[in-house]
């Protein structure tokens, strides 16, 4: 399990923030908040374990951003009012005691919402039913409903929701930075994806236009939080369509990653099912390698099956700065400490995420 690059355990800077190493906990939905989106004691203990286990950076599960269409799941945490923000303060305080950094991942579910206490219907770029079926381990069942196409007012409200949630996350909840969720099939990715975005206004059409909403959110968040680190998560695959690929291959990658760099993000978080593999049939390069080529100088995170040394080293050689670990972190909340001490890793037990993917007491005892 030894990584051939010893620098993975050395400090690394994201803007003005110094991380103790280059290992991050990837965002993972755990549906363990209260019904009103307030972080619970179980969540405090869950996140604290990763900081105690040596991770330099903890990225939260997706946090919904407004009291309209953003909530994706029952028992998902939010950042829409003072009570929600204050509950997160307990999480961030515990992580900071362990000298780790913590980023709030801000998410709008759009058409993939499976439970929203504020509304009975979903909203998306276009009235297109999402592929696949809802996820049972997040309380879903059956097909996704056909969403309502968002108006300009709806889009403006969504942008404002991201900005306001980011401000609460920094000022009231004590986070070190924010990650904008532009991946995995949720709202911002729905606008980026040709299948789900059939608009003929400024938000639809070419790839450059379809990436526009992500860029507007980055701008609004930056204005809200100032100089703190702001990142964005990007993927091709989606929770409801793992195999999706950008239609124009590397040309799309050039537009998307170049636009994110120009927008001034401090990091790009690329996630793929197997992050070390070629991004497209027409190339031998991974999506991370393409991000590095087209967004030089931007800090790069990668996620997707990187607990094996061979795969981790492959993306590090592609120019990745930080490894974001998901399932292996669930199985080994002390992953960095094990790596430093040369201890073996425990295998991932999928029963942790069933029948509902909430936090189990057995995890908290690990």
Task: Set down the secondary structure blueprint.
Layout (H helix, E strand, L loop, with lengths): L11 E3 L2 E3 L3 E3 L15 H12 L4 E8 L17 H16 L3 E7 L15 E2 L23 E2 L2 H20 L5 E5 L5 H6 L14 H4 L1 H14 L4 E6 L13 H15 L3 E5 L15 H8 L4 E5 L5 H9 L4 E4 L1 H5 L3 H7 L19 H4 L2
Parallel strand pairs: 3-4, 3-12, 4-5, 5-8, 6-7, 8-9, 9-10, 10-11, 11-12
Antiparallel strand pairs: 1-2
Helix pairs in contact: 1-2, 3-6, 7-8
Provide the descriptors you would attach to this structure in a database record.
366 residues; alpha/beta; 33% helix; 12 strands
Structure explained in plain terms:
The protein has 366 residues and is an alpha/beta fold. The chain contains twelve helices and twelve strands. Strands 3-4-5-8-9-10-11-12 form an eight-stranded parallel beta barrel, surrounded by six helices. Strands 1-2 form a two-stranded antiparallel sheet. Strands 6-7 form a two-stranded parallel sheet. Helix 1 (41-52) packs parallel to helix 2, helix 3 runs parallel beside helix 6 and helix 7 packs across helix 8 (287-294).
């Amino acid at each position: 399990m030894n990584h051939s690059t010893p620098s993975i355990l050395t400090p690394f800077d994201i803007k003005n923030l110094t991380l103790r190493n280059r290992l991050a906990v990837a965002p993972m939905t755990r549906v363990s908040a209260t019904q009103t989106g307030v972080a619970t004691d179980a969540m405090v203990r869950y996140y604290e374990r990763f900081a105690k286990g040596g991770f330099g950076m903890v990225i939260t599960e997706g946090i919904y951003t407004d009291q309209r269409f953003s909530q994706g799941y029952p028992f998902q945490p939010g950042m829409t009012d003072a009570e929600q923000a204050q509950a997160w303060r307990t999480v961030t305080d515990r992580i900071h005691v362990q000298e780790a950094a913590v980023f709030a991942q801000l998410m709008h579910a759009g058409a993939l919402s499976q439970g929203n206490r504020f509304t009975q219907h979903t909203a998306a770029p276009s009235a297109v039913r999402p592929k696949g079926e809802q996820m049972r381990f997040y309380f879903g069942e059956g097909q996704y409903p056909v969403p309502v196409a968002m108006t300009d007012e709806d889009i403006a409200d969504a942008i404002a929701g991201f900005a306001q949630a980011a401000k609460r996350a920094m000022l009231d909840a004590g986070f070190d930075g924010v990650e904008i969720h532009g991946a995995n099939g949720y709202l911002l990715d729905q606008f980026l994806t040709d299948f789900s975005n059939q608009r003929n206004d400024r938000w639809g059409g070419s790839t450059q236009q379809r990436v526009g909403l992500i860029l507007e959110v980055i701008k609004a968040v930056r204005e809200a939080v100032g100089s703190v680190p702001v990142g964005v998560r990007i993927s091709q695959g989606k929770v409801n369509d793992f195999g999706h690929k950008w239609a124009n291959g590397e040309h799309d990658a050039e537009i998307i990653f170049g636009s994110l760099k120009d927008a001034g993000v401090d990091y790009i978080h690329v996630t793929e099912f197997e992050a070390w593999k070629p991004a497209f049939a027409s190339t031998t390069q991974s999506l991370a390698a393409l991000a590095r080529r087209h967004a030089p100088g931007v800090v790069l995170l990668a996620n997707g099956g990187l607990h094996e040394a061979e795969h981790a080293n492959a993306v590090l050689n592609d120019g990745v700065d930080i490894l974001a670990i998901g399932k292996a972190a669930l199985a080994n909340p002390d992953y960095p400490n094990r790596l430093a001490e040369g201890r073996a890793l425990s295998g991932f037990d999928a029963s942790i995420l069933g029948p509902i993917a909430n936090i189990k007491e057995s995890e908290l005892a690990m």
